[in-house]
Amino acid sequence: MLKKGAEGDIFLTKHENVLAILKTRKKKQYRNQVLDDKIRTSRTIRESTIMSEVKGFGVKTPLIYQVNPNDCTILMQQIKGNVVRDLSGKKLILACMEIGKITGTLHKNGIMHGDLTTSNFILSNGKIYTIDFGLSQRTTRIEDHAVDLRLFKEILNSAHVNMMKSLWSSFLKGYRTAVGPERYGQILNHVSVIEGRGRYAQVV
Hints:
This protein is an alpha+beta fold. The protein has 5 helices and 10 strands, in the order E-E-E-H-E-E-E-H-E-E-E-E-H-H-H. The chain folds into 2 domains: 3-77, Phosphorylase Kinase, domain 1 (2-Layer Sandwich), CATH 3.30.200.20; 82-196, Orthogonal Bundle (Transferase(Phosphotransferase), domain 1). Helix content is 45%, strand content 21%. Helix 3 (142-159) crosses helix 5 (181-196). It is globular, with a radius of gyration of 17 Å. The N and C termini lie far apart (37 Å).
């Protein structure tokens, strides 16, 4: 096991004698079993479908080897490289600009990632790969896209507090180039709206 998450567990395994990643969605004991099976199956199918679909937009993701809706597992390519969270200095700044471009490309094509953190991007051979589409969904709503940005901003403020301002600025530059100035302005304004709501603390 590599990672234990709320939605699923990540295992290192092999596929045709090559190291691979197996993601399994866990059963939720508190849910009705029929409903739980339906939710886990639909999310597994949606995640694998979106991961493959975004390649058509130029977003790099792991190759999907197998999807098993019956046991809610996805067998995929292992991306060897450095998790962006572990980068520092100029490499981290440039990576955040690329993440901005990737996020903008997803949004422009009606995809919300749903879990934008620096732990869900891997730098491999000079390219940034996006992983963990477990909470992704198809949506063009400004609110949903702004939530993606707000989460990333919050992550920068907690995981990279010393470089937060420069990383956020770099991310926004990349994002603006992908979505265009008009959409950029609308979404950024909505990020401010979200931060203005009572249950959100503003990230400076």
